[in-house]
Amino acid sequence: MCGIVGILGKGPVAWPLVEALRRLEYRGYDSAGIATIEKGRIERVRAPGKLMHLSQKLTGLDLQGTAGIGHTRWATHGVPNETNAHPHIAGHVAIVHNGIIENYRDLKAELMAEGVVFETQTDTEAVAHLLSRELKAGAKPVDAVRHVLARLEGAFALAILFEGDGDMLIGARRGPPLAVGHGDGEMYLGSDAIALAPFTNKLTYLEDGDWAVLTRGGVTIYDASGAKVSRDISHTQASSMLVDKGNYRHFMAKEIAEQPEVIGHTLGDYVDFTQRKVRLEGLAFDWKQLDRLTITACGTAYLAGLAAKYWFEKLARLPVEVDVASEFRYREAPLPKNGLAIVISQSGETADTLAALRYCKSQGQHTAAVVNVPESTIARESDVVFRTFAGPEIGVASTKAFTCQLTVLICLAAAAGKARGFLNAKDEEELISALIETPRHIHEILRGEAHIKEIARKLSAARDVLYLGRGINFPVALEGALKLKEISYIHAEGYAAGELKHGPIALVDENMPVVVIAPRDALYDKTLSNMEEVAARGGQIVLMTDASGAQANEGRNFDVITVPKSHPLVSPLLYAIPIQLLAYHAAVFMGTDVDQPRNLAKSVTVE
Ligand code: AGP
To answer: Do 295 and 238 lie in a common domain?
Structure first.
C-alpha cells in the first residue's frame, strides 16, 4: 500500500509534494521520492526509509519545478532500497504507482526482448518502459496512456509526468483509490483526501477504471472504455491539520488515550442519552425481513465483526456468518435472498474488504459499511454507511477505531434486536446505560496504566504468548494476540479458552505467559478452570477480570488486571484497553517502531 501524489502548481512543488507525502506515510514508509520538471527536464530525488530521509536529501537542492509527482512506498516487488524507490523513469516519462501489476513479468520479458534494460526489481518500471515505447513510436501522451492501460492486469493507481509537458499530469485508477484535487489555477492527484487537504477541499474521486488528464485549467476524465465521463466534485471534510502526537511519545499512545472521548462521540450518533435507547431509524433495509447477516473484514476490523456475531445472535436472534475478507471474496459463498452484508474497515480502502463488498452486492445483498473515513471507496460503494467517529487513526495498530467499531456494531445489534422483537425496553435501557458508562470505565482503566506497564515488561521477555477468552471475549483474546505480535514482534496466539486442552496446552510451561480474559460472567468458572490447567503446568498467568474476579483470586501468585464491572455484552469495549496497553508497553520495551511497525502499513490497498 503506497501513497501517491501529483501537483500541477503555480509555484515550486517539491516541498508541497513532501507535505502531501507526510500525510500519506501511514500507507507505507519503506522509501520515498519525488520527480519534478526542472527547465523541461525530469529531475528525481529518492531515499530509502522514512520520509525524513528524502527531506534531508532535498534540503539544499534548488528545485523550482511547478509540476511533479511523489511517492511513499510499501514494498510489494523488490527490496525497499533507493533503486526500487518510486518515481520510476523511462525515457521522458516518470511514474508513481500504488498497487500490483500482475502481468508485469510478461510485459518485462516482452520489453527485454526488444533490448530494454531494467534498473529495478519493481513491477512499476515495466509500465514506465511501455509508456516510453509508445512515445518513441510517435504516440501523444494521452494515446500512449490509453494504449498502455489496456495492457495492464492487476490493481493500480498511477500518476504520470511527461518531460517536455509541464502542464500535464495523467492519473489512472483500477482498484486502489485516486482523487483529483481542484485548486485555483492548480490541479492535484492524490491517494486520498488527507494528502490533498493542505491544497484543496474540492475533490473528484475517480471510479474504478477511470483515468484522468489534468492541466492547470482542469481535468478530462475517461472511463474504462475510453469514453469521456464527468464525475462529481465533492467537498472533503478531511482536515488540513496534520495530526500530531501532542504530548505523547507515539500516536498509538495518544489514540489509546482518546478512546473515552471518541467512543462517546460515536455513541452520540447511535443512542439517545436521555432516553437511554438506541436511535437508528429509516434504514434502507428492514431488520425484520433479514434471513441472515454476513460480516466480513480484515485484521482487527474482522475481530470487531467476530464480536458482532455474538451480539447479533444473542440480541436479535439473527444468524450471522463472519469471515476474513481475503477468504470470503474467493469462496463464492451462497448468500440468502434477504441478506445484509456488513463490511468493516477503518480506512475504507482495504482491497480484500472492498472485493468482498462487491461480491455481496453482486449477490443481491443489502450492503452496509462501518467505516472511519466517510469518503472512502468502501463507503461510497455501500448502500448504507455507519460511521465511526474515531478521528484520524495514524498508528498502524488499530486501537480507537476498533473500539469505535465495537460501539457501532453493538448499537446495530441492539437496533436489530429491538426491531425483531427480541430486545425489550428494559433490557435495551440496561444495555445502553452500560454503553453510556463505557467512557468513564475506560478512564478508570487508563488510570491503572502503570500496573499494566509493569506486566508488559515481563511479557516483553517472552518468546510466545497465549491469550484465552470465551464467548464475547474470544474475539478480544484474538485481538490481544494480534496487537502484541504486530507491534512488538513477539509471537502470540489467541484461543477460545475451551480449546486449550485440544492442543495448545502442550505449549504451556514456565516460559509461557498466558493472558486470561475472564470477567465474572456466566462463563467465568469455565474459563477459570482453563486457567487452573495452565497454572498446574507452571504457565505465567495474567488474569484480566473485574473486582469480583480479582477478589476471588486474591493472593494467587500471578498478575491480575482489574477491569470495571459492566454489562456482560459490553466487556469487549473495556477489555480491549488493557490488551492494547499490554501490547503498546511491551513494544516500547522491545524498542520497536510502535507507530510504523516493520513490514506493515496502515491501509492494505493491495491483495
Ligand atoms: C490492526 O491493528 C491492523 N493494523 C490491521 O489488521 C487492520 O485492522 C486491517 O488491515 C484492516 O484495516 P481496515 O480496518 O482499514 O480495513
So the answer is: no
